[in-house]
Design a protein that fits this description.
Layout lengths: L3 E5 L3 E2 L15 E4 L3 E2 L7 E9 L8 E9 L15 E4 L3 H7 L1 E8 L6 E8 H4 L7 E8 L13 E11 L1
Antiparallel strand pairs: 1-11, 2-11, 3-7, 3-10, 4-10, 5-9, 5-11, 6-8, 6-10
Length: 166
C-alpha cells in the first residue's frame, strides 16, 4: 500500500527590489516582484516568508503590506502588473481590493532600520486553495520614509510544496 507524503522543493528567494522603496500614503505605489512560474513544476502550494527593513526615522503606527497577484491565464496580468521586478502604482484602492490577495501586514513603529518578519503564508490559500500558473508579490508601505537602502536587509523566501507517493 502506498503513502502520500508532503515534500518540499528547494527554497529560493523571489526577485524583488525593496531597497529604498518609497513610501506611499495611499498604499497603492509599491514594488512588484518577478513572476513565480509554476507551469512546469506544478507545485501544489508555495509558502512565502520574508523580512523587510524600514528606513531612517519612520512614522509610528504605519504598515508594510505584502499582496499576491495572479495571472489569469499564465500570460496576462491585471491592471498595471506585468510579471517583472518593477515599481508599479495600482489604478485605485478598488482595483487593489479586487485583484490583490492579502499575504501579510506588518505594523511598524518609529524605530529606524527595524527588520519586520512575516510568514510563512500559503499562496494557494490566498487564491482559494489553488495556486495560479503564474503569480507575483506586490509590496507597499506608508512609513513616511523610504525602506532601508541595503538590499541584503530585505528578503522574500519561497518554499514550494508538493506531494509524493511512497
Amino acid at each position: 500500500m502506498a503513502d502520500v507524503k508532503a515534500k518540499y522543493a528547494t527554497a529560493s528567494d523571489l526577485t524583488i527590489t525593496l531597497a529604498s522603496l518609497a513610501s506611499d500614503t495611499n498604499l497603492l505605489a509599491g514594488q512588484e516582484s518577478s513572476a513565480f512560474d509554476n507551469s512546469s513544476n506544478l507545485y501544489l502550494d508555495c509558502l512565502v516568508s520574508g523580512k523587510i527593513t524600514t528606513g531612517t526615522s519612520p512614522t509610528t503606527a504605519k504598515s508594510i503590506q505584502v499582496w499576491a497577484v495572479g495571472s489569469w491565464d499564465g500570460t496576462s496580468w491585471p491592471d498595471v502588473f506585468d510579471g517583472t521586478d518593477s515599481a508599479e502604482t495600482i489604478t485605485s484602492a478598488n482595483h487593489k481590493n479586487s485583484i490583490c490577495r492579502f499575504i501579510a501586514e506588518m505594523a511598524t513603529d518609529a524605530t529606524s532600520d527595524r527588520t519586520y518578519h512575516f510568514g510563512p503564508v500559503s499562496i494557494a490559500a490566498a487564491f482559494g486553495g489553488v495556486m495560479p500558473v503564474k503569480w507575483i508579490l506586490f509590496v507597499v508601505h506608508n512609513t513616511a520614509v523610504a525602506l532601508n537602502a541595503t538590499s541584503g536587509n530585505h528578503q522574500i523566501r519561497l518554499q514550494p510544496y508538493y506531494e509524493t507517493v511512497t
